[in-house]
Amino acid sequence: MPHFSARPLRTLTLLSALVLAPVAQATDVVTSIKPLQLITAALTEGITQPEVLLPAEGSPHHYALKPSDMRKLTDARVVIWVGPGLEQFMVRPLARTNAEIVTLRPDLEAHGHEAVEHSEPHHDTGHDDHDHEVHDGEGAEESHHDHAAGDDPHIWLDPMTGLEIAQQILPVLQQALPEHAAQMQRNYEAFAIALQQKERAIAEQLAPYRDAGFFVFHDAYSGFVEHYGLNQLGYFTVDPARKPGARHLAEIRQQLEAAKAVCVFSEPQFTSAVVDAIISGLPIAQGELDPLARSISPGADGYLNYLQSLSDSFKRCLAKKTD
């Protein structure tokens, strides 16, 4: 019986992998956070997988890039971020890359103790959303600032803004990868149709729960809440890495005792001990929302799946009013 070497089989497998692999390199497109990766991945489906800088356990408010992150930025053709109003950790590193930088919200300015120097090239200084919180030690109070329309840096939580983000980054991606421009246009058109269908389905799903009051842990959801007309009564903290003030928590407890809310939402990254304590002894449901889509896989439907996961979380908790 003739003896066949395994080497040709390995060579064939390697060649097949090369043929089937996307043409573009994985580092062609880098996004700062996972939700932007999800939107970008819908446009680059079948072409390249966008990289994301912020790890699952990280916060865009407080993160320091690692050397491996800097290599991603150095290798990238396109870098996509919201702007200094959210990811201030990106400002100085972006000054050291030759990538085409897409700043989605350069109008959100930051000031105060984390202000960015005006000398940084290519970027406007920005306004960080947690500068609205007042601190004076353990008894720190939080102002009752709510993000006005257009001022919330968590822009991906409004599905129609998600579509605008896709529209904004599409021509930049097409210019960076011109050989895939036609496919990206087709991907965008399919994404737009699917997103509009998903938006209508979610509106129908949440319509019965618009009057149910709730509190969120982190002031991040105004885009989603306002788009679907939900009844958010307040939030525990502006910056999830900071402990809520005692007086602010007491005011939330008073509203909960007055039966103004049926649900309080925590977040997966941060301990729910504060939430558990404040609803103790009250008939209040507890849910969970993730503003950064940590558990969602990127792909053609990744952003749609994320929006659906948010809607499902709201429905599960707000439906308690009918129990």
Characterize the overall form. globular
Poorly predicted runs are 1-23, 111-149
Order of helices and strands: HEHEHEHEHHEHEHEHEH
- In percent, how helical is the residue content? 25-40%
Main sheet: strand order: 2-1-3-4
Alpha-carbon distance between the termini? 74 Å
Task: Quickly count the domains.
Answer: 2
User: Please, what is the CATH homologous superfamily of the largest domain?
Assistant: Nitrogenase molybdenum iron protein domain
Query: Which secondary-structure class do the elements indicate?
Result: alpha/beta
Q: What quaternary form is this?
A: single chain
- Identify the CATH class of the largest domain: Alpha Beta
Specify Rg, calculated over alpha carbons: 22 Å
- Helix tally equals 10
Largest sheet: 4 strands, parallel
CATH topology descriptor of the largest domain: Rossmann fold
Model description:
The protein is an alpha/beta fold and about 325 residues long. The chain has two domains: about 25-200, Rossmann fold; about 205-320, 3-Layer(aba) Sandwich (Rossmann fold). Helix content is about 40%, strand content about 10%. A four-stranded parallel sheet has the order 2-1-3-4, covered by helices on one side. Strands 6-5-7-8 form a four-stranded parallel sheet, with helices on both faces. It starts with 6 loop residues before the first helix and ends in a 5-residue tail after the last helix.
Show the helix and strand layout.
Layout: H1 7-20, E1 29-31, H2 34-43, E2 51-52, H3 67-75, E3 78-81, H4 91-94, E4 100-103, H5 159-176, H6 181-206, E5 213-218, H7 222-228, E6 231-237, H8 246-257, E7 263-266, H9 273-278, E8 285-288, H10 302-318
Parallel strand pairs: 1-2, 1-3, 3-4, 5-6, 5-7, 7-8
Helix pairs in contact: 2-5, 5-6, 6-10
